[in-house]
């Protein structure tokens, strides 16, 4: 199952993404959801971190405290929120568990359930069948896509945020923990858009300066008619090439669309950009997948 057939490999190479239905069992999905329920029930969010997550450049001009909260989250389990969930004093306006946009960026390292799924034999076999020799896990995210308020993810290439030289060394692994439909904000891709490099790069500003990150280059206004919706069932795994253009729409439905996603880098012969916002740390060097 975790081994790709030649036709699947060819499809991934052509399209820049590939759906593998039934990759995880219902039990594996429920185990991750239950674990997240516990983590959220115990979550502690300091007042200055009660900040909302947005991919809009202009809205990323935030207070220094919340910038640091994001920039130093690479080796931690931290919480990022939807818009409009706090009052001006930072108190929750909606129940905390319904307010979270995502948890990032190191569940794969610190949580036993997420570590065992990430490093599971079937994920390792999948990476081997893609020819990865020395894959390392650079980050992970648990994405909630809450009913009614789950925000839009604007068209992007993951390599804009996870830049390497050469390109083509980053791979997203996106696992649906609930059915993802057109109504609740499934992924959309531009098939074949992974072959012409990266439009923009997010780079880290010198330490202590606001807003903390900036973009080199800009995202083209992608023609929305080029995007193909990719609804999948709970347990499906979607492979995402680091340069394929993808997005997801706002969730206006009554159903959440939870997903666990992590990114691998082929470390052999690759330079991780020292300008990326995310950097390996002494506490958490990027863990090798094959362990
Ligand atoms: O889950 C989403 O809506 C977007 C996820 C994404 O862009 C990614 O995993 O690279
Ligand atoms: Fe992405």
Description:
The chain is an alpha+beta fold and 291 residues long. It contains six helices and 15 strands. Strands 1-12-7-14-4-3-2 form a seven-stranded antiparallel β-sheet. The chain has a four-stranded antiparallel β-sheet with strand order 5-13-8-11, with no helix packed on it. A two-stranded antiparallel ribbon has the order 6-15. A hairpin with an 8-residue loop joins strand 9 and strand 10 (213-217). It is globular and about 55 Å long. The two termini are 20 Å apart. The model is unreliable at 57-62 (pLDDT under 50). Bound molecules: 2-oxoglutaric acid and fe (ii) ion.
Compile the SSE list and pairings.
Layout: H1 6-15, E1 17-20, H2 26-41, H3 64-71, E2 77-81, E3 100-105, H4 107-110, H5 112-118, H6 121-129, E4 135-143, E5 153-156, E6 164-165, E7 170-176, E8 187-189, E9 200-204, E10 213-217, E11 228-230, E12 237-241, E13 246-248, E14 259-266, E15 271-272
Antiparallel strand pairs: 1-12, 2-3, 3-4, 4-14, 5-13, 6-15, 7-12, 7-14, 8-11, 8-13, 9-10
The chain binds 2-oxoglutaric acid and fe (ii) ion (FE2).
Q: Low-confidence runs (pLDDT<50, min 5 residues)?
A: 57-62
Strand content: 15-25%
Number of strands: 15
Going across the biggest sheet, name each strand in turn.
1-12-7-14-4-3-2
Overall, the morphology is globular
Rg calculated over all Cα atoms: 18 Å
SS class: alpha+beta
Largest sheet: 7 strands, antiparallel
Percent of residues in helices:
10-25%
Total of DSSP H or I helical runs spanning 4+ residues: 6
Cofactor: Fe cation
InterPro entries: Phytyl_CoA_dOase-like
Family: Belongs to the PhyH family. PHYHD1 subfamily.
Protein name: Phytanoyl-CoA dioxygenase domain-containing protein 1
